[in-house]
Amino acid sequence: MARPAVGGVPATVAGPREPLAPWVREMAAAVDLEELAERVVVTDIAVAFPRLSDDAEFVAHLRASVRENLLALQQVLCGRLALAQVRLTQPLEFARVQARLRIPQTALQRSYRVGFSTMWQEWSQRLCAAAEAGDVPREEALHALTRLTATIFDYQDHVASQVAEQYARADEALGRSRAHVRQGLVREILRGAPSLPPSDLLILDYDLEADHVAVVLPATAEGAAIQVTIGLRGATGARQSLVHPLDLSRTAVWLGCPTGWSRPAVRRLREALTAVGVEASLGGPRSGLAGFRDALEQAQSVERVRAAWGRGDAPRVLEHSDVALEILLLRDPERARGFVRAELGPLAEDTPEAARLRETLEASFRLGTHVAAAEHLRLHEHTVRNRLHRAEEHLGRPMAQRRTELQVALRLLRVLGAAS
Prior knowledge:
Structural class: alpha+beta
Order of helices and strands: HHHHHHHHEHEEHEEHEHHHHHH
Mean pLDDT: 87
CATH class of the largest domain: Mainly Alpha
């Protein structure tokens, strides 16, 4: 926030300050802004926005804001731009993004403090190095450091006040939006609210006592998710739907059916998502208010398995029943890794040979015969037999002896290997 006004003018721009010495301006111009911007972004995310570190769109907004701030600050330090003339675009847009995501203004202010502290450290260290290299008298160097510090934090004060005002304006506008109020109600439910008053239920416009299926769309923003949801309702006959942004690029969708979800209806939902071509993680049908929360938790558990599996390898549409075993066993990843190592032995190694044998073993288990596995893998039947024989040699026992354990270990390795 800006400091108190002096004579009706903000203190940061009450009058021009003494310009920095030529050697200081030359030093300021030589800073690599790209490298410094990345350091500021990493620091800001770690301190102010840790839960959004994987949100690529949010990080892109942050990076654009930091870069524009650094460029303008460098222009001010070099005497090419007066502080009162600084007009920014990206930092104000970033403030609107934070308001939309309901990020507390305290986090915004914290990000500015740590970000500008990082900038100050870079320029002040370079000033000290330049003063030493140029044999600048101690008194002059200290005066230059004081002036540099005052200029940087004058700039921070000037910009932070604009950003805070933009955030407050955007937050107020969103607070008047019905859609934004609905998002707040969903967050309240997910935090464990036991019920909502009738007036809030009217705004929510979704029956919390219905049977719910939740879908997480990990690469679909809210606007596109609304269009996808229209098609899903048509395909499944779901009476109601609720779309909720998890962040800028991920969206959750609930589909409600008062009479319950049949298996054919869930199958139609999968087929509709596959036809659209989006990535989707589905929770199983759940009932009532607690089921509303459980359905999303299930879908998010599926999405965690997808992320560990690898987006390029996992099916685009995954249902909880597809990976329920992985979800259960991955609650203790270290024990799961120990189980995989004990069951697969050398077949768990990260080598092309081990990968080929695992692929053949998995196909044989799943399809039931050498012939079917050979056809699936497009190999000669003798090749499949030879591979299975080598697999047994590595295992040190017949495959049939611990068939179930081997199948479980192969499924776990598919996820644990990608995660490693």
